[in-house]
Specification:
Number of helices: 21
Number of strands: 22
Bound molecules: threonylcarbamoyladenylate, magnesium ion
Helix content: 40-55%
Length: 561
C-alpha cells in the first residue's frame, strides 16, 4: 500500500513528481490493481472497469454486495460510444454542459463492459470527474476506471485521503491524495434510458440545474424513502442502509430554528448532534458536529460525511441531525442524512410556540402569565404536574422515600411540611430533592408538550433553567423588576414586614442571574399590576411575532441564547 500523491495545493516545483505519481497510479490500474482516486465529489476506489478480476477486487475490498453496479469514470463525452449503445442526443447536451462534473448518466451498455462492472444490468453509469489528477490518470491509463466511493460498504463516503486510509489501509494498492473533496457528496445520477429522464440519486449537481437545461425529470421513489416493502429501486445502491454511523440517527426536518428546538427538546447527555453553526450553542452538554451556516449548502455538502464519520470514535448512543430544505444541494445533503437514519425522520413542529417564564419572587411572573392567557395562550403549570405525578407515579414516590424516609404519611400522601423542613436551609438536601424531581418531571412535561396541538403555550416552572425545562421552549423570558419595587410588592402581597421581605429577596437568585441565562427579558417597573399586564401583552405579542417569523423562514438565530 502506498500513498502516491500529495495535496495538489503544494505542487510548486514538483511537477516532475506529480507526473511520476500519475504514471505510477496509471500503471497499477492498467495491471489490475486498486487505487483510491480523488474526485470533486468523494474519493473513489478505482480499478480497470473492463477487467472482471480487477473489478471483483473492488467488491472484496469494500465488502460491497455483488448486485450493486459501479460507475465508469472517463475523460469526456468522446469516450461514450466506446462503452454505451443507443446514446440519446440529450446525453451529449448534458455532457457538454456539466462534464467534467458531478453528473453520472445511465445509458445502455455495450458488451465490452463486463457483467462484473454493471452487476449484470444492461445499462452502465458513466461520469467524467472534475479533478485534474484523476483525469490525468485515466488519460494516461487509457482505460475507463470503475470506481465506487472508497468507503467500506455501509459507512459514510470518504472526502479526504485520510478517510480512505481509515477504511482501506492494507486492502488496496495505493491512495492518490488530491486534497479534500470540494463538492463533498456523490454525483447526481440521471437515468437516460427512460422518458422523461429519471433522477436515481440526488448529488452534487442540483436537480434544478438539470431541469433548466432539459426540462422535467422524474424523481425515483427511493430518494424519498417511500419504497414499499420488496419494491426495487432503479439504482441498486439506493436500497441499502448507507452512510451510517454506528449509533442510530434521527433526522429532524423543518425550519432550522424549529428543528434545532425540537432536537434540544430530545437530547440527553449521551446524544450526539449534527447541526447548523447557529444552533451549536444550544447543545453545550452534547458532542456536536456542525454542518456550517444554515444558509450555506455548499459547506454543508462538504461536511456532511465527515460529521457522520466523526461520531464513530465517540461513545454517543444516538445522533440527532438537522436537515436543510430540499432546494439545490439540500436534496442530496438531506438524502444522505436520511439514508444514514434509515429514513427515521421527525418533522419539527413549526406551529406550536412555547415560552418559558422565570424570575424572582415579586417580579411579576404571575401577571406576565395572565398576559399570555389574554393572548389565547395556555399555561403548563409544572407545580401542578409535579403534584399529579406524586399521586400517579410510584417510581417517583419510591425515589423520594428512599432519600427522605418518613416524609410520606400512612395513607401514602406526601407530608409537604416535613419534606420542606428537611430541605429548607440545607443546600445539599435541596439539591438531592431537585435531582429526583427534575428526573421525573422533565420527561413528563416533555411528553405532554409533545402531544399539544398547535398554539401558544407558556411553561410556568420555578426551576425552569435549573431543571432543563428551558430546552423545551422557543424562548425563555426572565421577568425582572427593580428590588425596591419587589420589596413593596411582596410586603403587600404576603402581608410581611419590610425586613422579612428583604431577607427573602436576598436568599434568592438575582435578576442578573435570570437575565444572563434567558433568551430575553421583560422588566416590570409598572406602578400597578394592570399597567404591567398591558405592557406584558404588547411585549409578548411582539415576541410571538418574532418566533412565528423565525419558524417561517428559519434563517434568524435566537437572540441571546
Ligand atoms: O460521485 C460519485 O458518483 C462517486 C465518485 C467516486 O465518482 N462514486 C460513487 O459510486 O458514488 P458508488 O458506487 O458509491 O455509487 C454508485 C451508485 C450506486 O447506488 C449504484 O447502484 C448506482 O450508482 N449505479 C451504478 N450503475 C448503475 C446502473 N447501471 N443503473 C442504475 N444505477 C447504477
Ligand atoms: Mg457509495
Amino acid at each position: 500500500m502506498q500513498t502516491i500523491y500529495y495535496d495538489l495545493r503544494d505542487t510548486k516545483g514538483q511537477q516532475k513528481r506529480i507526473e511520476d505519481n500519475i504514471s505510477a497510479a496509471a500503471k497499477i490500474l492498467r495491471e489490475g490493481g486498486l487505487v483510491a482516486i480523488p474526485t470533486e465529489t468523494v474519493y473513489g476506489l478505482g480499478a480497470n472497469g473492463l477487467d472482471p478480476k480487477a473489478v471483483n477486487r473492488i467488491f472484496e475490498a469494500k465488502g460491497r454486495p455483488q448486485d450493486n453496479p459501479l460507475i465508469l469514470h472517463v475523460t469526456g463525452p468522446q469516450w461514450l460510444p466506446r462503452y454505451c449503445a443507443d446514446i440519446p442526443p440529450i446525453a451529449y447536451v448534458l455532457a457538454r454542459k456539466f462534464w467534467p462534473g458531478p453528473l453520472t448518466m445511465i445509458l445502455k451498455r455495450k458488451s465490452i463492459v463486463p457483467d462484473e462492472t454493471t452487476a449484470g444490468l444492461d445499462t452502465v453509469g458513466v461520469r467524467c470527474p472534475n479533478h485534474p489528477v484523476t483525469l490525468s490518470i485515466i488519460r494516461e491509463a487509457g482505460i475507463p476506471i470503475a470506481a465506487p466511493s472508497a468507503n467500506t460498504s455501509g459507512r459514510p463516503s470518504c472526502t479526504t485521503a485520510q478517510d480512505v486510509l481509515e477504511d482501506m489501509n492494507g486492502k488496496i494498492d495505493g491512495v492518490v491524495d488530491g486534497g479534500p473533496c470540494t463538492v463533498g457528496v456523490e454525483s447526481t445520477i440521471l437515468d437516460l434510458t427512460c422518458e422523461p429522464p429519471r433522477l436515481l440519486r440526488p448529488g452534487g449537481l442540483p436537480m434544478e440545474d438539470l431541469e433548466r437545461l432539459i426540462g422535467h425529470i422524474d424523481v425515483d421513489k427511493a430518494i424519498t424513502g417511500t419504497l414499499a416493502e420488496g419494491e426495487k429501486p432503479k439504482a441498486p445502491g439506493m436500497k441499502y442502509r448507507h452512510y451510517a454511523p454506528k449509533a442510530p440517527v434521527t433526522v429532524v426536518t423543518g425550519a432550522p430554528a424549529a428543528s434545532a428546538a425540537e432536537i434540544a427538546r430530545r437530547v440527553s447527555a449521551a446524544s450526539g448532534v449534527i447541526c447548523f453553526d447557529e444552533y451549536a450553542h444550544l447543545f453545550k452538554g452534547q458532542e456536536v458536529h456542525t454542518l456550517g451556516p444554515s444558509a450555506d449548502k455548499q459547506t454543508q455538502a462538504q461536511r456532511v460525511f465527515d460529521a457522520l464519520r466523526s461520531f464513530d470514535e465517540s461513545g454517543v448512543t444516538e445522533i440527532y441531525a438537522q436537515c436543510p430544505d430540499n432546494r439545490g444541494l439540500g436534496l442530496a445533503i438531506g438524502n444522505r442524512l436520511k439514508k444514514a437514519a434509515g429514513f427515521h425522520v421527525v418533522q419539527a413542529d413549526s406551529q406550536r410556540i412555547i415560552l418559558g417564564l422565570t424570575g424572582c419572587t415579586g417580579a411579576g411572573k404571575t401577571s406576565a402569565l395572565r398576559a399570555i392567557q389574554a393572548l389565547g395562550g395556555e399555561i403548563i403549570d409544572c407545580d401542578a404536574v409535579y403534584h399529579e405525578m406524586l399521586e400517579q407515579s410510584e417510581d417517583l414516590r419510591n425515589a423520594i422515600n428512599e432519600k427522605f424516609p418518613g416524609v410520606f404519611s400512612e395513607d401514602g400522601s406526601l407530608n409537604h411540611r416535613k419534606l420542606g423542613e428537611e430541605v429548607f436551609a440545607k443546600k445539599d438536601r435541596l439539591a438531592q430533592l431537585n435531582d429526583i424531581v427534575f428526573r421525573f418531571l422533565v420527561p413528563e412535561v416533555e411528553r405532554r408538550v409533545g402531544r399539544l396541538p398547535d398554539g401558544l403555550y407558556a411553561i410556568d416552572a420555578i426551576n425552569l433553567l435549573e431543571s432543563g425545562l428551558n430546552r423545551l421552549c422557543d424562548r425563555t423570558v426572565a421577568v425582572t423588576a427593580p428590588v425596591e419595587l419587589r420589596v413593596r410588592r411582596i410586603m403587600a402581597r404576603d402581608n410581611i414586614t419590610e425586613q422579612y421581605a428583604r431577607l427573602r429577596i436576598s436568599a434568592q437568585k438575582s435578576d442578573e442571574y435570570y437575565r444572563s441565562k434567558c433568551d430575553c427579558e421583560l422588566t416590570n417597573a409598572a406602578d400597578t399590576p394592570e399597567e404591567f399586564r398591558k405592557e406584558a401583552e404588547l411585549y409578548f405579542r411582539r415576541l410571538i411575532e418574532g418566533v412565528e417569523e423565525e419558524k417561517r423562514h428559519g434563517a434568524a438565530s435566537r437572540q441571546n441564547g
